[in-house]
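DM between two lab members

TW: hey, do you still have the Probable D-2-hydroxyglutarate dehydrogenase, mitochondrial entry open?
JB: yeah, one sec
JB: this one, 480 aa:
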Amino acid sequence: GSAATDIPRNPAFSNLNADDISYFRTILGERNVVEDEDRLSAANVDWMRKYQGSSKLLLLPKSSQEVSKILHHCNSRKLAVVPQGGNTGLVGGSVPVHDEVIINLALMDKIVSLDKINGILVCEGGCILENLSSFLENEGFIMPLDLGAKGSCQIGGNISTNAGGLRFVRYGSLHGTILGLEVVLANGTILDMLGTLRKDNTGYDLKHLFIGSEGSLGIVTKVSILTPPKLMSMNLAFLACKDFTSCQKLLLEAKRALGGVLSAFEFMDSHSMDLVLSHLDGVRSPLPSSLYNFYILVETTGSDETYDKTKLEAFLLRSMEEGLILDGVVAQDINQSSSFWRIREGISEASVKVGAVYKYDLSLPIDQFYGIVEEMRNRLGEAAKVVGYGHLGDGNLHLNIMTTRYDSDILAQIEPYVYEWTSKHKGSISAEHGLGLMKANKIHYSKSPETVQLMVDIKKMLDPNLILNPYKVLPQSCFN
Ligand code: FAD
Ligand code: MLT
Ligand code: ZN
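TW: and the structure you got?
JB:
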């Protein structure tokens, strides 16, 4: 069953009527105004099957002009909307809470241009991340971000969540790599900020407001993104460590020894490994898994095969000698490296197979990183499976707690404890997944009252009728 939400529907919103539907048909055409029950039921539920809405309408625009007409109409009629991309979000932000109209850019999946000298890609917001990656790889470039949901998530969704992922440690945040955006505002205004320049200090850099705003300020329809060159020499090591302190030291050592070629540093505990091995078919550990407490994936990407290998080998040898690594294996070919990545990227898929999963996505100072996992394990005992994994290179822990079904007693043992703990240790309650519906009321654990108030003021200015992704990101109480 799903986790119940008890947020009342905002009475200021209208109800969809037959005139609205016929208007949408005239602008989008019959086929792209979807009332089909099967398609709606898929669009009403999130990836974890935790959040469930009851929308009666899914719209599939083909251009920014169509998005503009939809929003202009919804705004004047006070019809609430939810922008949806690949629907892989993990905080309940991508599905309706009540009867919001779902707007999905799946048909806006065209590549507009690629500057082959600078690697600047311009594309529509509905492009699927993996398709962009494949396109770029043929042209000698790569996307600066990669994540387990690449086969379904859309670049507009990635930008709206400010997704982090597996390459963050090397290429940084989307706030650095996004050069421009086209966004449609709640009243239908098309905001052209689609610059393709590295440097442009002309006034306030408003695109940043939309990166990470989770569909609450506008719909991202076009994107300009700086893409790094594809480098040919890649190595991947799967390593085992005895304790968390060794993992921390290994990270510092990897940064020092591998420097510019380090391209991923991912972490998982033995509980995450066991979860994947017991729930995903055909996955095997490259190491005797029951022997070790922690696993690390270290990837290097560079341009000189011999030099990169020598560096990696020297790093591994020294870390072995110092006892930081107990065991390890370097992938011998592309198949083996995909099988290593499958273990790490498969944790989310395995976690939902248990039944119910409570996901916490925390930024924590490195010395506090694993403490909360152990505390939760002690607190919950036999009642739940607790696993810790994440992007150690970025200080981002994923704490997942799994039970057979969603249960308010379990939830009461986890929250607010986990948020209070994170706040006390000066962490963030959302490192990369966003606040969505799950954490809209928890923002104060990570942001001051004055900061939240300014966010509310900005929201009211850009979306005075509050039609864009209501009930998400900011506490509902701020708008009453
Ligand atoms: P959706 O889930 O459809 O929507 C997410 C949010 O963005 C919603 O609030 C929605 O309203 C809004 N939105 C979507 N499209 C638009 C648009 N065009 N304009 C305005 N708002 C829009 N996240 C990470 O950060 N790092 C990871 O490593 C990572 N790994 C994942 C692995 C798996 C297996 C899964 C299932 C999820 C993972 N995620 C990760 C979470 C998720 O994939 C990302 O948040 C992703 O960026 C969401 O993209 P999407 O297109 O699916 O957006
Ligand atoms: C990951 O790093 O695997 C993702 O953020 C997804 C998740 O935590 O489930
Ligand atoms: Zn992650």
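TW: got it. The domain at 233-347 is CATH 3.30.70.2190 (Alpha-Beta Plaits). Residues 390-391, 398, 432 surround zinc ion (ligand 3) (CB under 6 Å).
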